[in-house]
Write a structure and sequence with these properties.
Chain lengths: ~425, ~160
């Protein structure tokens, strides 16, 4: 089975039913976990399989789980929280999994909750996913009725309640600790770490927050084993990945492919190449908060390490393409407007620095740019860079800007008043 | 308390899912909003009381999120996506066309109270850009004909 995550996803956009899901091996991972493995053994299995978080940061999932206190003398209440906030522009992969195969996510939640011995799980879903919410609600109810959730699941001594929590639209909720605050009903500002949520998270209890796609992988790892999972990949990172393309290609979309395929293969074969009359100028490999790569990077494998070596991040694996008829400066302006609006306002560099960035870029494209503005933008990339702000929103916001200033310098300069040209005319 | 028994019951049921009732704050605001279109100061104070929060605390939450309306809106809210993929594929033109058709600017409600036009960030359907959300429904690959259809539902269905 080369495409475990999307095996049940139908082209007509309807959801896989419980029956269809079971026919393709659904809930077998849960059955096996409860029957054959101790919770810690599931953790080890996921660690051995090399599953890395699919939400953007790529942290090894099994390692994250191993920080949760386990055994007799640990808190009785622990939580598993599903990060289904998916609000990064250019990212639309979890929607496919939630709408197309909600039972797969429910099973992933059950197996993962068992692995850390959580008694309650919350699926934190962005408020705009109305269809996804309806399908998840139904899947949770069906799974409950069939004995896959609730008390003494499948006759074991493991019990789990799953609740759907729909949010109301705010990008910062995708940040792990902001999500926890939001879930508690507070303003969604990030929390200081330590303590890490694995030890003290939701209401001070040990809490694991995992992305939707990450959790969907877990039942298959239990069902088919760590070696099988590694074998799905073409590179050093295990498994498959939902890759996506948006922009001026012939067939934008998302596809489950072996981890480590090249950007060229995704763009040319799966997305059908650029639309007629358009050429590729650059791409953000993994959503709005990643650095631009260039056509010369098309043959780099889309895995964490390889993309990192080119100076960007795999992020969510959903690419946004820049074509030769779209102005990179205006594109970056659009991105920075998003980040400025969605900043939670907690720390000064981000709260003030992002609107400043926007006004400089807006000034440029409005013809009010000054020669020193580009240097100021560069300095802002440093001020808002890693380590200078409370969370990763601001550094993420700077990634497209700093790489655009590097790769598309002449486009920025073209907006500056033509001092040199005027001089030339004079001579 | 100005909330209906139905609203109160729905809020209590949500609050029961959590260690602390305040965790149901977003859900509670959405329940009231679903019944009344938006959340007034009086409604906000009632919800806060139900959830054991101060009105200021709850307002801090309410005003933080894009989908909670603290002012009256039309019967349908049109949220057009203004994020990067939709922007690249013509979202600005669509917004202008919509403004023209509805005769309102961004943030305004049509005179007949039918539509309010608001921007929204990426709706997670960038492969089907441009995208708009009208009420609970997401419209993808939006073009002028689709906008005409959306606007023509005025007063109807
Ligand atoms: S970096 Fe921005 S989003 Fe993160 S805590 Fe600071 S203000 Fe909030
Ligand atoms: S950018 Fe519009 S839906 Fe993602």
């Amino acid at each position: 089975m080369g495409k475990p995550l999307t095996r049940n996803i139908k082209p007509d956009g309807t959801a896989a039913s419980l029956k269809e899901c079971i026919k393709s091996g659904g809930y077998e991972g849960l059955r096996k976990a409860l029957k054959d493995y101790q919770p810690e053994e599931v953790q080890h299995l996921v660690k051995d399989a090399g599953l890395r978080g699919r939400g953007g940061a790529g942290f090894p999932t099994g390692v994250k789980w191993s920080f949760v206190p386990m055994g007799e003398n640990t808190p009785k209440t622990k939580y598993l929280v599903v990060n289904g906030d998916e609000m990064e522009p250019g990212t639309f992969k979890d929607r496919l999994l939630i709408e197309g195969d909600p039972h797969q996510l429910v099973e992933g939640v059950a197996v993962s909750a068992y692995a850390i011995q959580a008694s309650t799980a919350y699926i934190f879903l962005r408020g705009e996913y109305h269809l996804g919410a309806a399908r998840l609600r139904q899947a949770i109810a069906e799974a409950h009725a069939a004995g896959y959730l609730g008390t003494n699941i499948l006759g074991s001594d493991f019990s789990l309640e799953v609740h759907l929590h729909t949010s109301a639209g705010r990008y910062i909720c995708g940040e792990e600790t902001a999500l926890i605050n939001s879930l508690e009903g507070k303003r969604a500002n990030p929390r200081a770490k330590p303590p890490f949520p694995q030890v003290s998270g939701l209401w001070g209890k040990p809490t694991i927050v995992n992305n939707v796609e990450t959790l969907c992988n877990v039942p298959h790892i239990v069902h088919y084993g760590a070696e099988w999972f590694k074998g799905l990949s073409r590179g050093p990172d295990a498994g498959t990945k939902l890759y996506g393309v948006s922009g001026r290609v012939k067939r934008p979309g998302a596809w489950e492919l072996p981890m480590g395929v090249t950007a060229r293969e995704i763009i040319e074969e799966h997305a059908g190449g650029m639309q007629d009359g358009y050429k590729l100028r650059g791409f953000l490999p993994g959503g709005a908060s990643t650095d631009f790569l260039l056509p010369e990077h098309l043959d780099v494998p889309m895995d964490y390490g390889s993309i990192g070596k080119c100076g960007s991040r795999l992020g969510t694996g959903t690419m946004i393409l820049l074509d030769d008829q779209t102005c990179p400066v205006r594109m970056v302006l659009n991105l920075e407007q998003f980040f400025a609006q969605e900043s939670c306002g907690w720390c000064t560099p981000c709260r003030d620095g992002l609107p400043w960035t926007v006004s400089l870029l807006q000034g440029l494209v409005d013809g009010r740019g000054r020669p020193e503005d580009l240097a100021t933008l560069e300095r802002l990339c440093g001020f808002l860079g890693p380590g200078n702000t409370f969370c990763a929103l601001a550094p993420g916001a700077m990634e497209p800007l700093q790489s655009a200033l590097k790769h598309f310098r002449s486009d920025f300069e073209a907006y500056l008043p033509r001092v040199a040209a005027a001089g030339a005319a004079h001579a | 308390m100005n909330l209906t028994a139905e609203e109160i019951e729905a809020i209590r049921a949500e609050a029961a899912h959590y260690e602390q009732a305040s965790a149901a704050s977003i859900e509670a605001l959405k329940i009231v909003q679903a019944h009344r279109g938006w959340v007034s100061d009086e409604n906000l104070a009632d919800i806060a009381e139900l959830l054991g929060m101060s009105p200021a605390q709850l307002d801090g939450v309410a005003t933080f999120y894009n989908l909670i309306y603290r002012r009256p809106v039309g019967r349908k809210v049109i949220h057009y996506c203004n994020s990067v993929s939709c922007w690249m594929l013509g979202a600005e033109d669509h917004r202008e066309y919509l403004q023209q058709k509805l005769g309102v600017k961004l943030g305004e409600t049509t005179a007949d109270g039918e539509f309010t036009l608001l921007p929204i960030v990426c709706l997670g359907a960038c492969d089907k850009a441009p995208v708009m959300m009208v009420g609970d429904e997401t419209h993808m690959n939006v073009d002028r004909a689709a906008i005409d259809r959306i606007v023509s539902t005025r007063g109807g269905s």
